[in-house]
Every structure is written in structure tokens, then in C-alpha cells.
Design brief:
By secondary structure, the chain is an alpha+beta fold. It contains eleven helices and seven strands. Helices cover about 40% and strands about 20% of the residues.
Length: about 280
């Protein structure tokens, strides 16, 4: 399917299924391409530094490539077959990895059906994975919805919104639960940057090799890479304060030696903390 993006106006046909579809798209970004592409309405535009807060829900599926998502509580690596749910009122930002790019499919929607799930506390927080594998049925439904937006047959809106409503059970947080050991493992990796990974594997009742395999299947990267990205994210937030020295950032993140922090940051970010700070000025 070629690249296409659609933002839908309100009309009397919208919302018949308790859910109003407001947009959707299928776009490929190559390595180094600017993100997001120009041409989006002001309410949907954002850049990495500023982030964004939406007034609607969005589903983003990474079809190919990889990238990262962040909000105030989460840092998520995203790989092919994984997705994020964006909820109203939550600051967030995401982007493809400049080295790989990605192909994304997305839907934007709102309405009583999805708001009910939200008020019942049954929606995952922004950034929680809602598709852990490239589910053929999920892909088929997304392709069908996006095809309806592209070609507009006579009953396109009702059909597209009914298909979107059929995805809501997949967004129900009670299906996966916060006690998933791999979800907890990700929290431990990001929350304690120095705890041995093998200890976290044992807590998940997996051997180190099984843990690495399962973690990559769920989170799209190795436990070590996930921790590196968490380190880089936390470090960038501290480094953004010009009144904080690199040594103070290292100490705040639990590094006993400044050099150890610098090596870890360089592995994750590709540059030293000092160089990153200079580039960001």
C-alpha cells in the first residue's frame, strides 16, 4: 500500500458504533528522514523536544523498522509488530530510529465506547504495548480500515468505524495485566540501572537465555539495549539542565565513576554526554 494519510471531518454518518474515526494513515520513513512528515494539522504536529498532548485516542503499529516511545512514566523500544496506544491528556513523544526508519500504520478515534473503557480503568497507559506479535488478523483489519479510508466506497465510514470498534477488546488492559513478569522486568531494568540482568531473569523465573529471547519477543530489543535506552533517556533529562555537571548526572544515576557513566551513555546515544549537551545547545 503506498503512503497515505487521512484526517476525517465530522459528518452525520460519524459515530454510529459509539466510536468516531477521525483519521488514519500508512507511512514509511526511511533512515534519516525527518519525523513527523509535514502536512499534518496543527493539533497533531509535534517535534521530539516539545512532545505532544492529544485530545483523542490513537493506535500506532510499527510494521517494519524500529524506534522509541516516551511519556512521563515510560520509555519503550518499539520494533516491528509492536504498537502503542496514545490516550487523551498524556504528554508523549515517539519517533523511528534514524538508523533504520520505520513503517507505521495508525488510527485516530474517540467516542463513548472508548471513553467508557477509559473511565473503567481498562485502557493501558500511553505507551503500553497493545500488540506483542505481528498478529495476522490485526494486520488484516488495519489494512481493511485504511483501504476504506483510501478508496471511500459508499458505506466506507460506517464500515471503517465498525472495524475500529472491533479492535477495542485488544486494548483492554485486563487482558494482559500489570503483573506480567516481562512487564515487571522492564520496569526493573529502567528503574535500577545497576541491578544484574541475570537477577531480573531469575525473578521472572526464566533462565538468562530464555529471558533474553522472551524479552526481545515482547519488547523488540535485548534487555541490555532496553536498559541502555533507559539510561540515555534519564541522562538526557538531567543533562538538559545547564546548571548540572556531567559528574553530578553520573552520581544521580548511581554511577560510582564518571568514566563508567560516559561509556554507558556513549554506547546508548552514540556520543559522549558532553558532546550531546553541546549539540543540544
Amino acid at each position: 500500500m503506498p503512503d497515505h494519510v487521512h484526517y476525517l471531518p465530522d459528518d452525520r454518518e460519524a459515530g454510529r458504533w459509539g466510536l468516531r474515526l477521525t483519521g488514519g494513515g500508512d507511512t514509511t520513513f526511511g533512515p534519516g528522514d525527518s519525523y513527523p512528515a509535514p502536512g499534518h494539522p496543527e493539533s497533531h504536529l509535534f517535534n521530539w523536544e516539545r512532545g505532544r498532548v492529544l485530545k483523542e485516542f490513537q493506535l500506532i503499529l510499527v510494521v517494519a523498522g524500529r524506534g522509541i516511545y516516551e511519556d512521563r512514566q515510560h520509555t519503550r523500544s518499539l520494533g516491528a509488530g509492536q504498537g502503542i496506544l496514545l490516550v487523551p491528556g498524556v504528554w508523549h513523544r515517539y519517533r523511528p530510529d534514524p538508523a533504520s526508519g520505520w513503517r507505521e500504520q495508525w488510527l485516530a478515534f474517540d467516542g463513548p465506547a472508548v471513553r467508557l473503557l477509559q473511565t473503567q480503568g481498562r485502557l493501558d497507559h500511553g505507551g503500553e504495548f497493545w500488540s506483542r506479535v505481528l498478529d495476522p488478523d490485526l494486520r488484516r483489519r488495519l489494512e481493511e480500515i485504511l483501504g476504506l479510508l483510501a478508496h471511500r466506497p459508499a458505506t466506507w465510514r460506517a464500515e471503517a468505524e465498525a472495524l475500529t470498534a472491533s479492535l477495542l477488546p485488544r486494548l483492554d488492559a485486563t487482558r494482559t495485566g500489570e503483573n506480567d513478569p516481562l512487564h515487571q522486568a522492564a520496569l526493573h531494568l529502567a528503574g535500577d540501572l545497576h541491578r544484574p540482568i541475570d537477577d531480573i531473569a531469575r525473578e521472572a523465573e526464566l533462565s538468562p537465555s530464555q529471558f533474553r529471547l522472551r524479552f526481545r519477543q515482547v519488547h523488540g530489543c535485548s534487555p541490555r539495549r532496553y536498559r541502555q535506552e533507559a539510561l540515555a533517556t534519564q541522562a538526557r533529562r538531567l543533562l538538559a539542565n545547564p546548571g548540572t555537571t556531567v559528574a553530578e548526572v553520573a552520581e544521580a544515576l548511581g554511577f560510582s565513576a564518571h568514566a563508567h557513566f560516559t561509556r554507558g551513555f556513549r554506547r546508548a546515544a552514540g556520543v559522549s554526554p558532553r558532546a550531546w549537551r553541546q549539540q543540544s545547545d
